[in-house]
């Protein structure tokens, strides 16, 4: 019989849309010590998960990296059932030496801490809450007046100013001042680029965890059934038509996503043109194309494309305040005839 899992070093990584959370996790995984097993639990706002496919397309379980997604923006809805199911399966399968948890950019991180500190207090050793921030947004009231954005900073042990190579001198100063006003008393500030984080950051002991307000946590997210997790499009079998569409709404944003059967191939150049022209806050995708498998990431700065070693099916998620009905037609035009 396997020994019980106990005191697994755990790091929560949070931050608003497009700040580079998945990139930071991917970079950390590149430096995983040989022989160790790491587990990654990823929560996404859309019902069709893409981050897990992006991570798995660059890393594999054969190399000791295990990934599980909790799509739908509901990591802690229904008293944490979606998260518990996903996390339990992940821990049993991976028996990890370390766990990384990525919370959706539109989710309240205190909900995750509430679940971990009660149901998993003997199993997990939560060492750090890392919040990634693009300091250029601190002059924009859409961020500074957003409750989720401010909670992500308020709960962090370390606030990481990512994309610092794009900052003006006043941006880093503004970040330190903002954390001093809105963050924890001993919160640290670290500047980095392209999500590069030192592994040593994961093992720094956190201060005493913040006091959580159970009543606020109970009302800060949407709810599903009290008895079982919701059935999400990410888990549903693909219909005979070969694709599936799903939408989600919350925190003033909307998402639309599609999954495609492996037999549907996309024209690479048309697809890149379509993705480059999208007017959306966030786009993530993995596609099987006539030139191979690729992962895509569109944020405010640019569209990035990476080659994937593996890809089971094409997926895309678009997050915006407005969903354009023409996107579906344009996407269909990218299919290889």
Please specify the SSE layout and strand pairing.
Layout: E1 8-15, H1 21-30, E2 38-43, H2 51-56, E3 65-70, H3 77-94, E4 98-102, H4 109-119, E5 124-133, H5 141-144, H6 147-154, E6 158-161, H7 169-182, E7 188-191, H8 214-219, E8 243-250, E9 253-260, H9 268-276, E10 282-289, E11 292-298, E12 303-307, E13 314-320, H10 326-332
Parallel strand pairs: 1-4, 1-5, 2-3, 2-4, 5-6, 6-7
Antiparallel strand pairs: 8-9, 9-13, 10-11, 10-13, 11-12
Index terms:
337 residues; seven-stranded parallel β-sheet; six-stranded antiparallel β-sheet; 10 helices; 13 strands
Q: State the share of residues found in helices, binned by percent.
A: 25-40%
Unreliable runs, pLDDT <50, ≥5 residues?
211-230
Q: Into which percentage range does the β-strand content fall?
A: 25-35%
Molecular shape: globular
Structure overview:
This protein has 337 residues and is an alpha/beta fold. Helix content is 28%, strand content 26%. The chain contains ten helices and 13 strands. It has helices at residues 21-30, 51-56, 77-94, 109-119, 141-144, 147-154, 169-182, 214-219, 268-276, 326-332, and strands spanning 8-15, 38-43, 65-70, 98-102, 124-133, 158-161, 188-191, 243-250, 253-260, 282-289, 292-298, 303-307, 314-320. The strands form two sheets. A seven-stranded parallel beta sheet has the order 3-2-4-1-5-6-7, sandwiched between helices. It has a six-stranded antiparallel beta sheet with strand order 8-9-13-10-11-12. It is globular, with a radius of gyration of 19 Å. The termini are far apart.
